Amino acid sequence: MMVSSAVKPIKIKTNNNKAGGMYILLSSREINYTKDNETKPPNRAYQIQVAVEQMYNNVRARGKKNFTIPKGTSIIKAVNSLQSKKEELKSILKEKGTLKVENLILENIDNNDRTFKTCFDKFIQNRKIATRKYGKPASDNTIRNYTAFYKKHLTLFEDREVDSITVNDIENLRNSMLKKKLKPATIKPLKVIMKQILDEYDVIINWNKIIFPTPDNIRKYDRDIEDTIKIVDLIYNYLPAGSTRKYEINAIFKLLLTGRRISECTELRYEYLDLKRMMIKLPKTATKTKREYEFVLPYDVLEAIKKVSSIKTKGKIFTIHSKTILVHFKAMMESIGVHDMVLHDIRSLVAQTALNNGATLFDVATMLSHSNTKTTETRYIQGNSIQSANALSTFNKAISHEIIDVEVIEDEFSQLKKIYPNASEEKIYKIMKMMK
Q1: What pLDDT is recorded for position 129?
Q2: Which fold has domain 116-209?
Q3: Domain 225-386 belongs in CATH node 3.40.605.10
Q4: Distance (Å, rounded) from C-alpha 305 to C-alpha 303?
């Protein structure tokens, strides 16, 4: 808890010379130093004020912000942890000339109230709208999940001030959830929610110290080529009878077959289409990884979009919700007796089939917009006998004494026929069409 008496900023002195512009807020009776002339922390949660200055429009701009440090944290640790915050403040000052931001708060809530319940309510309100900090609003489903998790697991904090919450508190809650044998995916929101709230109120927590169980969200696609062709044909040609949005639904399913996420499909805008280059350019605000990506815009996908409405210069292309697409996908799969696939498995299907037919891991990772090929390898790609046979065949060719004419390049049909010797010509052509 913060002391009630008046505090004043005292310049921090450390031997590592990293505390420039940092001041500890202490009461007059707490100001003392060690023999090494280093600032000593009080025996409580305390605050460090970070002061920065930058040039903005040829004028020197200054600003400062207070950060709450958990009880028992050494000055050295606190100073080191605030280095990144200091750089963030300098960037904001350089860009905007001020550190002041509009606080979006709920009506009838005291902005000085730092109890966890109040802070959570403000956090939820901010997540419902677009902000500079969080970007686009959270979905209704995300808000419901956050609220449900709070009611079930976080009410023990609701009357406490956020400044008093420590690493031990979070570890104790994590341990109690583990004792109840809750799944890692159920425990995961603990860090997601708590970190955002405590960061918002400048409460410094060493999150690296807290080990959270890793959710096993790895899904493998291992269906044979016969099933894959049947599934792809159904998805590609799906036009629900009687639906006024059948062309919209069909266009989204065609987009999903390019390896896109459902959120990237439903949030697609006309501004992202580059018709001259036949590319889709997703800005970082529209991607899960918060990075900008470009993808090929297949001709059949463009034609499907044109059936939804005439091409415009701006605005959302689709108005349909992802839940509607999920309902149609489940109905579609049930019609062919497939009961163990989820919508996201379409990405695995595309990735696995592409890899089985000669695509490199790097190419597949790029198609899926993964920043790290390890993600692709562990989450989507299932090593199997086809890949093993392909690798062995390549090795045997490399070490054989046969004279190979390097000018002769096998056509795509012949290559696929070697991989699937029992498949009919019609099925081979379907595979070729799917790969394109």
Answers
A1: 77
A2: DNA polymerase; domain 1 (1.10.150)
A3: no
A4: 5
